[in-house]
Fold this sequence. Notes:
Layout: H1 2-23, E1 25-26, E2 31-33, E3 39-48, H2 61-73, E4 89-97, E5 106-113, E6 124-131, E7 137-144, E8 150-153, E9 158-161, E10 166-175, E11 188-193, H3 198-212, E12 217-221, E13 224-228, H4 237-244, E14 248-249, E15 256-260, E16 265-268, E17 273-274, E18 277-279, E19 285-290, E20 293-295, E21 307-309, E22 312-317, E23 325-327, H5 333-342, H6 347-359, E24 363-364, E25 366-369
Parallel strand pairs: 15-25
Antiparallel strand pairs: 1-14, 2-11, 3-4, 3-6, 4-5, 5-10, 6-7, 7-10, 8-9, 11-13, 12-13, 15-16, 17-24, 18-23, 19-22, 20-21
Amino acid sequence: MRRLATATAFLIALAVNLGTAEAQTRIKDIVDFEGVRENLLIGYGLVVGLKGTGDDIGSAIFTRESLVGMLERLGVNARDDDLDTDNVAAVMVTAILPPFATQGTRIDVTISSIGDADSLLGGQLLVTPLVGADGEVYAVAQGPVAVSGFSAQGQAASVTRGVPTGGRIANGALVERELGFALNQMETVRIALRNPDFTTSRRIAQAINAFVGGPIAQPTDPGTVRMIVPDAYRNNAVALITDIEQLRVTPDNIAKVVIDEQTGVIVMGENVRINTVAIAQGNLTIRITETPQVSQPQPFAQTGETVTVPRTQIEIDEQKDNKLTVLPQQVTLQELVNGLNALGVGPRDMISILQAIKAAGALQAELEVL
């Protein structure tokens, strides 16, 4: 009996801990650490080797000048010649430089046509420098363009799938310059919340202080927690961040309802509450149907003529089955959804009802319409 009681207590404690863990989130999943960030790169280049689907040299002046300039750098004088090729396309090349990318690391690039090219299928991107916001070159891209879309056209029909004027080059750029950042030399680390909130930032600071055993973390605003590197982690901020990001906290979010009017999608948070309010939904629908009939005399009749007799049917739907529903004070999200579903309300009508409830001041949540 004693062993059974001990085992039962252990299972109950394990279940409680698992339930608590499931309700919590790792710090690394809701914050960003100072210095650990990506950088955007952009460049202008030429894609060659297209099968007659490139830019029109006559109308795309930038393509013509870029092609002439490239040929001149290679020792070919093309200024006096009448260039007429449709195998070249001017493109913009974009990439994301990962944090702490070392020299020689390869990154993916995205290719997008900026001229009147029909397709980049089969094209080859020539050497293209990629610059950052400071104008410095951080990577160089080159390689065959992989295009997922295609376009086929005949005399009477055409088919296009996807976007044939855009593509990617996997590992198509080489990092030429590193972004220096001495992470291990930092004496303080700032933690930025992806969803700023006073309660969440304080909980993160409390979790860090409880783990380290001292007041090293303090929330400075709803979106930032300032953390001092303790002596045990001196010159080893990486180890501190590794230990901190695995801690679990319970994020606290504001009550919010997000509505996408174009698609009819409604997303409501867990903390949405409704004050006492009465809801009625229904419209008067009048349907008129015209079914004219033909009236003609009997066979071999001496008199009479064939005429068209109008027949009109009118139906009025007052939606008497829809009743006025009263939602009690401080109903939960589930009760709100159940009440609206009981009225037979669709997503489109539900959007109007939520907006009306918000206008009446009964919706205790932020309403965001996309």
